[in-house]
Amino acid sequence: MRTNYRYIRPSFLEIVKKPNLKVAVVIACRDGQDKLDLVLAALKEQTYPAALFTVYIIDDGSVKALVLPKIRPAKTKLIKFKNKDRAWGKTLATNFAVSTLKEDVLWFLDADMVVEPDHLSHHMKWHHYADDFVVLGWKRFVGDWSYTPELLGSELRNGSFSTLHKVSEGKDSWELLIKGTDDLRAPSLESFRALVGATFSISRKNWNSLGGYNPIFTTGEDNELGWRALLGGMRFVPERQALSWHLGISTVEVHTDTVIAHNRPLFAHHVPAMSYLRANDQLTWTVPENYIVADCRSMPAESFKNMVNEFLADESGQARFILIGNWKALTARYKVTEDSLKELREINRWIAGDSRFSCEESASEKKLLISEILQRFDEPSTPFFYFTEGAIDPVIRFAALRHRISKSGNGLEGVVDSKDQRTFVIYAPALGRANRAGGNVYRNIQELWGMRWSEISQVDFSKSLSTNNLLPLVRIAFRAAKKIRNLSDFTKLLKKARQVLKKTISK
């Protein structure tokens, strides 16, 4: 596997002259035979070797069963996904079909996309270069078209793709996200939104490691997958030469309010970066923003409570805790006035009945190795992992550590006290990349993302707000402001901005 530092990648790649990777083109479709015929006609003209790609059409319970048209790629197969009460929709249909595929790369394409002949070749040049890319095609929306599959094929062979439509429009918010992150070379946690399902490709190995689409999402499954791919340390590439026409305006654009209302609860539960969806709600979220491993074997109860209370004060972010200690020893007979385990016992009593805490048994007195700590960070949708141990210095503020890592861009930021007690935070994308690279995970974080250790006295734990925090908020505000049509919309935007700004300052 070819690895790079953080999100560095070549500025340009030529189409591979002698490719060898096999591709599964996955198209989930319900009804829409006419558009599908055009999609297949365009795929027939792809310059990527026909022997290396197979098109899989998944019929997701069409009222009138889909059929394979005459004009199609040589290797095209139709998969019937039989709908049941709890088994229907693009998400489950796609997971079902992909589970049996063996190709090297999966290219997901919507059933209303007419692609330029070199489209797949532009995707595949990245996958031939390295196996950690998620490649995003470039699309324009069109409202009208009159060509038949036969005429479309002829136009594409004549090099007339760009003149098929004189009037088209892009997705402003998506293109602003791409531009504002230097084509995703400098992504933030917000950049998960870049992954949309219309045309993207990923290695089958990485798709499987992510677990495919989250089955509880009926729509928005692509964005949620993007969140997990981002945290997995994968590099997103918006390939501007992989051009396509989207036949018709997207469902989200036509029914914006309805779709947003439908997706809001699920995104709030599963994507902590969308913290504004969690504001003012006293719910327990499925995925916490913070995951803490605390070695409690020599931790005073007071230190424990101070640490926990800081995390739990963040109601929208929330936290989950793994507590390491000799918990079994607490069942033995003891004398209240001579209790050698009184601190651990008090910790155990404070957390009793709270599902946010899990206890891990360790009777050993040996200091945890860094490799042993990293193995415990296994929550795929949580963006920040923390470790702390012993008598935590009261000057430490975990929010300041998070601010420090967000500002530096490092994969790990840690502090050590005079007793060699460690407290550190890890950025999930750095850990994801390090795990996939193989070998020593700690060394991989250092080499692929960067890390910094400091003595506690060298760190300013006062909270502050940098321009790095503000710029993403400003971009979001500008995008939202463009959609304002009346005073009530402005009031809602102002209220949301106050909530997000308050949360950011607290970090």
TrEMBL record:
Q: What is the lineage of its organism?
A: unclassified sequences, metagenomes, ecological metagenomes
- List, alphabetically, the Pfam families matched: Glycos_transf_2
This chain's source organism reads freshwater metagenome
Protein name, UniProt field: Unannotated protein
Q: Which Gene3D superfamilies match?
A: Spore Coat Polysaccharide Biosynthesis Protein SpsA, Chain A
Q: Which PANTHER family match?
A: GLYCOSYLTRANSFERASE, SLR2126 PROTEIN
Which SUPFAM superfamilies does the annotation name? Nucleotide-diphospho-sugar transferases
Q: For the Glycosyltransferase 2-like domain, which residue ranges apply? A: 25-147
InterPro entries hit by this protein? Glyco_trans_2-like, Glycosyltransf_2, Nucleotide-diphossugar_trans
